[in-house]
Amino acid sequence: MKFSDLNLEEDLLQAVETMQYDECTPIQEKTIPIIMSGKDVIGIAQTGTGKTAAYLLPILNMLCKEHDEEHINCIIMSPTRELAQQIDRQLEGFSYFIPVSGVSVYGGNDGILFEQQKKGLTLGADIVIATPGRLISHLKMDYVDLSHVSYFIIDEADKMLDMGFYDDIMFIASKLPKDRQTIMFSATMPERIDLLAKKIMNAPEEVRLEVSKPAEKIVQAAYVCYDGQKTELLKYLLKDETEQRTIIFAASKASVKDITRQLKKNGMNAAEIHSDLEQSERTNVLTDFKNAKIGILVATNIISRGIDIDDVKTVINYDVPKECEDYIHRIGRTARANNDGLAITLVNEKDQMQFARIEKFIGKKIYRIPLPDGMEAPVEKVFDLDRKRQARKRRAFSKKKK
Questions:
Q1: Treating both helix axes as pointing N-terminal to C-terminal, what angle do 81-94 and 279-290 enclose, rounded to 10 degrees?
Q2: Which of 379, 314, 388, 372 is CA-nearest to residue 347?
Q3: pLDDT digit string, tens, across residues 343-393
Q4: Spatial contact of 69 and 124, defined as CB atoms under 8 Å apart
Q5: Which residue in 65, 155, 162, 256 has a CA-CA distance of 20 to 30 Å to 320?
Q6: What is the pTM of this model?
Q7: Is residue 334 within 8 Å of residue 313, measured between CB atoms?
Q8: What's the whole-number mean pLDDT along residues 125-133?
C-alpha cells in the first residue's frame, strides 16, 4: 500500500513525499487505518519496521483537522532521551507543512533546556515527546495541564517496563482524560504488557508482526568460555580492529564501566554509554562514534533499539541477552544499509541454556569458534528445551488445579 492510499491530508502527504516515503511498511499499513478510526491499538513489531511513522502520521492527520491550540493534545512516551530525540526529528519532518507544534521533554543538566521545556509545556504544544522521569518532574510543579490530551502513545513499551517505568506510566496516565485514545507499540508482548494494557487501554485492537530473523549478511559466531576469560577474549578480538567500528553490549552499567576501563588501559579507543551519563555526555559519545572519533563503543541495551548508526562492522555480546528478541536487536546494529557485519557472543557456563534458547528462537545453530591457544574451554552442555517447557507447563497446570 502507498501512503497516497491512506486518505491523509494533502499538506501531510506533501511532507511524506518530501521525506521520500512511498510504500507503507507492514506495521504502517495495518495500524494507521485502525488508529485513524479512533480505536486503541497495541502494535507488536521489532525496531526498524517503521513504528514511529505508524503512530505519528495518523495522529498528525487527526490534529490537522481538529486540535486545541492552547492545550497539549498528545503525549508520546519514550524510554530514552535518544529515542525521544529521534521521534522529535521525524515529527519535525512530517509536520513541516502543517500547523502542529511539538516539544521534547527529557533529562539533562542544562537549566536553559529545562526552561525551554517548561515554556513549551505551559504554552500548550500540540505534541509532547517525553521520557517519564522528566515529564513527572514538570508535572509535580503544577504548571502542566494534561486535561485536554486526546492521544496517549507509549513507544517501546517492553523497554519501558524493563527500565522500571511502570509506576511512572501509571502516574502519568492518571493525569489524563479517561476518554483519550491510547496507542502502545512494543517489540515483544510479555505478560506485563498485557497487564498494563488492561489497566490503561479500552478494548485495544492488537496488530502483531512476526519477529524478523537476523539479516543474512550478519555472520554469527560464539565463544564458549569461562566468565573470567571474557576480558582476555575481548582484547584478543579487538587487537586488529582499531580501524573498524565495534559495539560491545554488556548486561549492566557496572560491567560497561569495567570493560571500558580495561580496554582503555590497553590503549584502545573505547568509550562507554549508559543511563548514568548526562544527556550531553551521551550525545557527545554517540556523535563521536558516528563520526569515527571513537572506534569501540561499550553499552548497555540503551542503544540496542531505535538508534541508527551506520558502518558498524562488529557487535560483541559480552553477556548473553536475557531476552531472545534483544539478541536480534543488538546484532541488528551491524550489517545495516546492505553492508556485511559480524556478531560474536561470549557464552559462559551459566548462560549456555539461554544461548540455546536464542538459537531455537532464530532457527539456527551458531558457529562456535575455538578458543585461542592457551585457553581451556568449559564443556558445553546439551539442553532439551522442548522437554523443559513441557515440564513447566505441567507444574503450572498442577498449581492451577490446587
A1: 70
A2: 379
A3: 999 999 999 999 999 999 888 999 999 999 999 999 999 888 776 555 554
A4: yes
A5: 155
A6: 0.68
A7: yes
A8: 95
Beta sheet of 312-317, edge-to-edge order: 270-273, 296-299, 245-249, 312-317, 341-347, 218-224, 367-368
User: Which grid coordinates belong to 101?
Assistant: 507544534
> Quick one: average pLDDT of 254-283?
90
In tens, the pLDDT along 144-182 reads 999 999 999 999 998 899 888 999 999 999 999 999 999
Q: Which three cell numbers stand for residue 85?
A: 530525540
Residues 6+ apart with CB under 8 A from 363: 213
Whether the Cβ atoms of residue 183 and residue 40 lie closer than 8 Å to each other: yes
CA 11 and chain centroid, separation: 30
C-alpha cell at 214: 537476523
The cell numbers describing 316, all together, are 560483541
Least Cα distance to 346 among 266, 215, 236, 269 occurs for 236
Query: Cell numbers of 265, please?
Result: 588501559
The alpha carbon of 158 is separated from its chain's Cα centroid by a whole number of angstroms, namely: 9
Three-class SS state of 391: helix
Crossing angle between the packed helical segments 10-18 and 51-65, to the nearest 10 degrees: 150
Phi and psi dihedrals of 218, rounded to 5?
A: -90, 120
Calpha distance 316→268 (Å, rounded)? 15
Beta strands in 265-322 (DSSP E): 270-273, 296-299, 312-317
